[in-house]
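User: What would this chain look like folded?
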Amino acid sequence: MSGHVTQSVMLDKFASDLNLEIVYSGRGVVTLASMSVERPGLQLAGGFFNYFDSRRIILFGLSEYEYLRIFSSEERKEKISQLFIHGGELPCIILSRDLPVLPEIVDTAKEYACPVFRSPKVTTDLMSDLFIYLNRLLAPSMSEHGVLMEVFGVGILLTGKSGVGKSETAMELIKRGHRLIADDNVIIKEIANQLYGTAPDIIRYFMELRGIGIINVKSMYGSGAVLDEKQIQLVIQFETWQQGKEYDRIGDEVSKTSYFGIELPKLTIPVSPGRNLAILIEVAARNFRLKSMGYDASEELITRSIGR
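Assistant: Here's the prediction, encoded as structure tokens.
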């Protein structure tokens, strides 16, 4: 498990992800470590650097641009240089509104190999895009052994010991029209108090099936059989059927598990020869949706029994 981390994104990918024009490539990567964005109005106008965070992306909007235009070229260069003197290796500079790029910005950026971008978006929209992007990229994350599927729109994390049948069950679900997000290794991120799962880039869309080997689900079944990311809403743990163990037969025992302090409902499904696990997971997904809408079959049965 990790807290907020540093991520290095290749220049072209960063520009593509946010629809940015590359003005100056700099060091060729954008190193991100803060979820916040810096609009350096106070720093440019008054030299106030007490709370200046050099890990933040520097964003020049119309206000900063028009303010800098008041000054001579030498004065502009001095003011922009102060950002680097106090900030060191800034991640990058972005100009909004397709503003003309002041030569002093690029000249100073070149001295520090700092990438410079430009966006056609207005400053508030660009800041919103950056906030969402940075929160996803730098969210606390952890790795979980399991399979993540979308079944009837519900993000279901399948867990259990190796060899219990998670991947085989996932394969059956894919054949039945449901979608794979990750097999074997699920990266769980906490974003805005919700849990999202994805696959490590290197194994995205791949599955390992014992006795067959590695397959590419996207190549075999098409892009409609996979998803890059999904909110995790339900955890289902597979375990080998244990003789004598009491399993929930009514559905009134609410079990929970948690990641990053966020609780998720958890079901335990015993695995034994002849059980159709794919159908059971489909039923669990439908039942979860019904409970989310306020209907609980076990409560209705209990109410009917008492009524009699």
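DSSP finds ten helices and 17 strands in the chain. If you want, I can go into more detail on any region.
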